[in-house]
Design a protein that fits this description.
two-stranded antiparallel sheet, about 300 residues, alpha+beta, 6-stranded mixed beta sheet
Length: about 300
């Protein structure tokens, strides 16, 4: 920067950085007038905005947020869940299914369970409602073998032994362990075997024999206390399945008066290629009779 001595002197007096002053003299030399002009222009220019005062620590702007919460999560459709899904889709689309719904008085089986469990504290030894339901179902199938059937190709098979499947929910799907020869076993035998199979199912320790050969399936949602009636899907190649809903104290008119009774919902789904509605209705009637007098079933086996 070239500046005259007088320009430098005036710049020092006015507090002007002479290096910023444009010169008008020869070869850009800064003269006294250039300094004065720059100083005057600087006075009339608006003051620069001051930097914002730092906020107190507690009021400081929040740090950059973490990644935005995803709108959904994904679970791989594989393993047991996929196998169940494929099987159910094939059953739903390939089988002409019909479901009969009925409510039955569960008072008798509840009374029997209470008597059987008197003075028994061990949970493993106590009889559950589900145990009694399995025994009643096996007894009904023994009385009407045509329901204990399957459709295989061009042949309807009527099984002479009741191998009862128990639909069991897992964290990742559904599995159906089988109580073999349930029609020949006592209530205590069915209870113990069913508990063992369900425990193995939930710990992933079932062997092949324990999940194959089923001729009929029972699926019980009554324990959730949220399902009255539903449409269970047949477990192919079986021809039928029994669904159990919750038990609800319900006022009904009977014997000339209104009484409150524990009514349980049954949902019986069957393959209409294997049996017609009359046969299905007859089977449900057998179940209803056994509910009314469960001792008849408990004497079997």
């Amino acid at each position: 920067m070239v500046a005259s001595p007088l320009a430098k002197k005036v710049a020092a007096q006015l507090g002007v950085d002479i290096g910023k002053v444009p010169g008008s003299g020869p070869q850009g030399r800064v003269e006294k007038a250039d300094v004065e002009k720059y100083a005057e222009a600087a006075k009339s220019a608006p003051a620069p905005a001051s930097a914002p005062e730092a906020l107190p620590r507690e009021a400081a702007a929040p740090a950059a947020q973490t990644a935005e919460q995803p709108a959904y999560s994904e679970i791989p459709y594989t393993g047991i869940r996929q196998a169940v899904g494929v099987n159910m889709l094939q059953a739903w689309t390939g089988i002409p299914m019909v479901t009969h719904h009925v409510k039955v008085d569960a008072a008798s089986i509840l009374e029997i369970r209470e008597k059987l469990n008197q003075d028994i504290e061990s949970k493993e030894e106590r009889i559950s409602v589900n145990d009694i339901l399995l025994k009643l179902t096996a007894s009904a199938l023994k009385r009407m073998p045509a329901v204990n059937a399957s459709l295989t190709g061009e042949v309807i098979r009527i099984y002479h032994n009741v191998h009862l499947g128990i639909a069991t929910a897992l964290d990742n799907g559904l599995i159906v362990p089988v109580v073999h020869d349930a029609d020949k076993k006592s209530l205590l035998q069915i209870s113990k075997e069913a508990k063992d199979l369900i425990a193995k199912a939930r710990s992933g320790k079932l062997n092949v024999d324990e999940v194959t050969g089923g001729t009929f399936t029972v699926t019980n949602l009554g324990g959730y206390a949220s399902v009255d009636e539903f449409t269970p899907i047949i477990n192919p190649p079986q021809a039928a399945i029994l669904g159990i809903g919750r038990t609800v104290e319900t006022p009904i008119y009977t014997e000339g008066e209104i009484k409150v009774r524990p009514l349980m919902s049954l949902s019986f789904t069957y393959d209409h290629r294997v049996m017609d509605g009359a046969l299905a209705a007859e089977f449900v009637k057998i179940l209803m009779d056994l509910f009314a007098n469960p001792l008849r079933a408990l004497c079997d086996g």
